[in-house]
Amino acid sequence: MTDTVHAAGGVLVRDGQVCLVHRPRYDDWALPKGKLDGDEHPLVGAAREVLEETGWRGRVRLALPEVAYTLPDGRPKTVTYWLMDAVGDGGPVQDTDEVDEVAWLSLAEAAARVSYADERAILDHVAALPPVTDVVVLVRHAHAGDRKKWSGNDALRPIDEVGAGQAELFARICGPIGPGRLVAATPLRCKQTLEPLAATLGGMPIVVDGAFAEPAEAEEAPAKAKLAAQRLLELRSAGSLPAICSQGKVIPHLLAALRDEADPEPYKTPKGSAWLLTWSGDRLLEPTRL
């Protein structure tokens, strides 16, 4: 079986314009993108490629449709795209072997200039989106060993070696999203899941909030999750993009409540896994698993 080539890129927006790059090797105009480095997360790879090819840092706002096609040598290729806001002052193109010119264009101008139909479809998709107003990151705490083998207070059960790796990965994923506030449910393992991210953000404090903790009884989870959903909306409205660490019995019901859906099953979340939640006003767009 031929291995799939995985790549990622972004639609980078600045002052209502989007960035295209000119690649002299192909003499084409394209969205900034490139192959992932090994097991690099697509969101992290997309942000890296955007910086290398445009000179601008992108702050991720929303996942866009994936593009799949076959390379001339027969290998399948997939490209994951993300909507990004350009942040900072920008700088020169870093990958000058790949890109020799960048252009900031309106969406209509970019759609007319881009060389590939699949990327034109991505731009058309972006043009049809409502404006993004708020973003929240929601993560389930990292792996914390076996509850049955822990003899102490379960609230004090720490993350284990696997969980530490998951927490480090979550910190890398969040870098291009840019959290400005960290909130953890009361168990120690929730706070520990956010600690590597807090370190990358200059020692940002982690606020403990019992609204995101599991109830004592499993049957109380749906009601508790409605309270958690309300608290999440309060944090969203307060500004300073929050990254929130909660627990496995809360998150599925919380997301179902936010989506006004009865079935929490589609939102079951493995330990250490996260969601990117994006709003346009009061409308929650499709949640994205990270």
From TrEMBL:
Keywords: Hydrolase
EC number(s) from the headed UniProt entry: 3.6.1.55
One GO process term, biological-process aspect: AMP biosynthetic process
Nudix hydrolase domain: residues covered: 3-127
Transmembrane stretches, start-end: none
GO MF annotations in UniProt: 8-oxo-7,8-dihydrodeoxyguanosine triphosphate pyrophosphatase activity; bis(5'-nucleosyl)-tetraphosphatase (asymmetrical) activity
InterPro entries the UniProt entry points to: His_Pase_superF_clade-1, His_PPase_superfam, NUDIX_hydrolase-like_dom_sf, NUDIX_hydrolase_CS, NUDIX_hydrolase_dom, Nudix_hydrolase_domain
SUPFAM superfamilies for this protein: Nudix, Phosphoglycerate mutase-like
PROSITE patterns: NUDIX (PS51462), NUDIX_BOX (PS00893)
Top EC class of this enzyme: hydrolase
PANTHER family given in the database record: BIS(5'-NUCLEOSYL)-TETRAPHOSPHATASE [ASYMMETRICAL], DIADENOSINE 5,5-P1,P4-TETRAPHOSPHATE PYROPHOSPHOHYDROLASE MUTT
Protein name as catalogued: 8-oxo-dGTP diphosphatase
